[in-house]
Design goal:
By secondary structure, this protein is α+β, with helices and mostly antiparallel strands. The chain has 18 helices and 16 strands. It folds into 4 domains: 5-102, no CATH class; 121-291, Ribonuclease H-like superfamily/Ribonuclease H (Nucleotidyltransferase, domain 5); 304-366, no CATH class; 378-476, no CATH class. Helices cover 44% and strands 19% of the residues. The protein is elongated and about 135 Å long.
């Protein structure tokens, strides 16, 4: 068990100032005597009132100390195996207590206090603030935090995820809120900033380099395991957790960001500036703002661009949800351009659909005209299929349908009525009735039906019985027109002549 610095100081005071023996200290502080002895030994002071007794580990101490100096974090179990191979006769549990006394304590590292000039540097990092449940989606709530190193002015913006696009939006929002850009930006080893690192060699994300070129700042990563180099943003995130986020209620991310803006300008801006305690952060920022670089005329683009494939249904999937598109754009590759509020779908450079963005999961976001157009197209296609089948069976129906359409009659209803008559009366009777209706210049299904009834009564035949067949059988049974046999006689005559 690791002892606290307060306990170690108490052990040393009782032993060297009050001259308590190790056993008494262990009893009074409810510790193991080996723990007390280890603290005294690691302090580099001789124990009072103790006599050094020979130990089996003494011949191996030079080797042990040399090994621990070279590998201070080497496990006692591995060191025991190394010493045992060299002849140590002791047990591993006792050896572990002995090694704890001789293991060197880590040296405390001293750091220089880093100072910057006004307008020189900003420090940037992400903070994780739990998750939000939006419908069926469970999304992380991330806080983008940027701090001006001299005035300690904070920019805080919350996003649903630490994506690269949100990283860029945070930069643009910070520099827009500050009205300028510092000359240097410090980053931790974020994936959004550093793609690869080998020692001192850094490969920055190309999009971040494009952003820095647009705003003319120099991106710099901190050294590995050197959190003190960006301690201003680390302390700002801790300050945000304690002074702003703790116990706060909000209805949406937009509401939370509005509260964050008010807090940054109010309570956070009223605290004292560490660089000049006679100034508040807001006063110091007013002075630093004059030293910032001017912003370019246009903002850096931060839309999320993604190629998506549209299948057979008029939807494309983006960020866990489906967005509708015109039915004429199915079965092709499209492009989605999204910002925090809107999702635009492009075919080449043309915008074919625009939707409000949803952060739910498995939701269908539709435009009513997309679905209505598809339904109308399906109905029209169904009418065309029925028209083709009718014309193939009864060629005379083509003229009747043409004239009926010119007179404003609905094509689909006319086709359905003639198709029912075809199934009831047959091909020959329907063709004759259509010819009669055209001769009377009445291209209407009712005229055809009256003609069929007159022909039936004239022939003195009973009313036909309609036979209802399944749709797949109706479409499969295509009428076959008999061939003229005179053509075969002509072929036979030609063969006789050749003989």
């Amino acid at each position: 068990m690791a002892l606290t610095p307060e306990t170690e100081a108490q052990i040393l005071r009782h032993h060297h100032a009050e001259r308590w023996p190790i056993g008494t200290i262990a009893t009074q502080l409810n510790l193991h005597r080996d723990s007390v002895a280890r603290v005294i030994a690691q302090a580099g002071l001789p124990t009072l009132g103790t006599v050094h007794r020979p130990s089996a580990i003494d011949p191996y101490l030079p080797f042990i100390l040399e090994t621990l100096t070279q590998y201070p974090r080497l496990r006692a179990s591995r060191l025991y195996d190394m010493v045992k191979d060299r002849g140590y006769p002791g047990r591993p549990d006792h050896f572990r207590h002995l090694i704890a006394r001789h293991r060197p304590r880590p040296k405390s590292e001293a750091y220089l206090r880093l100072r910057t000039l006004p307008g020189e540097q900003m420090q940037i990092d992400w903070g994780h603030f739990g998750h939000l449940d939006i419908g069926r989606a469970h999304r992380p709530l991330m806080g983008f935090v940027a701090v001006l190193s001299w005035s300690r002015q904070i920019f805080l913006r919350f996003y649903l995820g630490a994506h690269m696009e949100n990283f860029l939006r945070g930069h643009v929002g910070a520099m827009t809120a500050w009205g300028g850009c510092p000359r240097i930006a410090l980053y931790d080893n974020l994936k959004s900033a550093v793609l690869e690192r080998h020692g001192a060699v850094i490969r920055f994300h190309p999009t971040l380099l494009a952003l820095s070129g647009h705003y003319h700042f120099d991106p710099r990563p901190v050294a590995v395991a050197r959190g003190n180099e960006k301690g201003r943003v680390e302390r700002a995130i801790r300050y945000i957790r304690d002074a702003f986020f703790a116990g706060r209620t909000f209805t949406s991310v937009e509401d939370l960001n509005a509260q964050a803006d008010a807090w940054v300008l109010g309570r956070a801006g009223e605290r004292r500036c560490p660089e000049d305690e006679t100034l508040t952060v807001s006063d110091a920022f007013a002075q630093e703002k004059e030293r910032l670089l001017a912003l370019p005329g246009d903002a850096f683009p931060t839309d999320e661009i993604k190629a998506v494939s549209a299948g057979k249904t008029p939807y494309v999937r983006f960020d866990l949800n489906d967005y509708s598109i015109p039915h004429t754009c199915v079965a092709r590759t499209l492009t989605v351009a999204a910002n925090p509020k809107d999702v635009r779908i492009l075919d080449g450079s043309s915008v074919i659909a625009s939707h409000p963005r949803s952060y739910d999961r498995r939701e269908q976001i539709e435009l009513p005209e997309h679905i209505a157009t598809l339904v109308a197209h399906k109905h029209q296609a169904s009418a065309h299929r029925g028209t083709d089948h009718l014309i193939k069976a009864v060629p005379a129906s083509r003229e009747l349908l043409t004239q009926a359409t010119e007179r404003g009659e609905p094509l689909g209803r006319t086709v359905r009525a003639l198709t029912e008559m075809l199934a009831t009366y047959g091909v020959a009777e329907l063709e004759a009735a259509i010819t009669e209706a055209l001769a009377r210049e009445v291209p209407h299904p009712n005229a055809v039906r009256l003609a069929l009834e007159r022909r039936r009564q004239a022939n003195d035949t009973p009313p036909p019985i309609a036979i209802t067949l399944p749709d797949h059988v109706k479409h499969r049974d295509v009428p076959v027109r008999p061939h003229n046999l005179n053509d075969y006689d002509h072929l036979m005559e030609t063969d006789d002549d050749q003989c």
